[in-house]
Amino acid sequence: MKTTHKKSNKKVQTSAAAMLNLLILFSASEKTAAQTSAGIVGIDHVGINVPDLNKAIPFFSDVLGFTPVTQLGPIPLDADWKKLNHIDPNTGAVTIKMINAGNGASIEVFEYAENKGSKTHPNTDDIGASHIAFYVKDINASVQYLKNKGVKILGEPFTMPSGDTAGETWVYFETPWGSKMELVSYPNGKGYEKNKPAKILWSPKDTFKSYDDKQNSKTLSESEIRSLVELHLTIWNEKEAAKRDGLMKKAYADNIEMVDSHFTAVGHKEINGFVEGLQKKSVNSKFTHIKAVDVNHNTARLYWQHGTAEKPDAVTGMDLFVFENGKVSRLYVFVDSKK
């Protein structure tokens, strides 16, 4: 049952090397911090085997609307490779197509010629059984569309009534070759989000906009970005927590990540707490500009100083901003070494 599986995520940990690249190249929007010490930044693709590419690819492209992009093969496989990867020694060459599946990981589709492996799909409770889930805006409309295309729907859409996934609606369907896949939708978010967790699960609906949304969205101008940076300074100088929180909602994304050389703060609550602690340590200090804000597309950098009226540059540094959907989504803080 789907309800027995809990999806989890790891808090993003940003390496010093990644931050250095961001500073030097000033292209933070194209860089992501490593999630683990292995240097993993995200899922690039998922791979599945199919019995016949000539039947599978039209399903992905004509039914699901995906776009095949690259192809490799047929590639003959030597005996050592087959042994290492547990492939029957009599199986033939492999052909691979990589498919763009919209906003998210790509799908890598394999076909083995003269395949001597098992022709039976794993049962749902078998070790190694898996499925791919696709986010949709209107799950009922998507189900009806698939039914009209002759796709087998496994039951009816079910909405989770409670728990961490409350508000999520899902249903499984079957491909023409028997693989199980899923449609999922939660336009109003999931139950766990109401508790304002430090980390929100990634979702295509939040990270990327659809083509239509992009057409109707407004790209921030340089003046608008500079205004948000000025608001950022106001936030860090505001003494009242309630006012500071209200300003954060205007300038910062809900799941903003602030990365310092010593820690990572996620969300308004954590950043608010850090600012409050800083102000208690430096009651009469404030942040001011060192020079004008630099803007480069959806990124900006602010050189600042922090101190009292008598010594305004007691501490100096630079903030690097990444803007998404009209707000600051990531903030990288660089504090200069003391002289």
UniProtKB/TrEMBL annotation:
Keywords: Dioxygenase, Lyase, Metal-binding, Oxidoreductase, Signal. GO terms for molecular function: dioxygenase activity; lyase activity; metal ion binding; methylmalonyl-CoA epimerase activity. Residues 1-33 form the signal peptide. Gene3D superfamilies: 2,3-Dihydroxybiphenyl 1,2-Dioxygenase, domain 1, 3.10.450.50. Residues 42-186 form the VOC domain. PROSITE patterns: VOC. InterPro entries: Glyas_Bleomycin-R_OHBP_Dase (IPR029068), Glyas_Fos-R_dOase_dom (IPR004360), MMCE/EMCE_epimerase (IPR051785), NTF2-like_dom_sf (IPR032710), VOC_core (IPR037523). GO terms for biological process: L-methylmalonyl-CoA metabolic process. This is Catechol 2,3-dioxygenase-like lactoylglutathione lyase family enzyme. It comes from Flavobacterium nitrogenifigens.
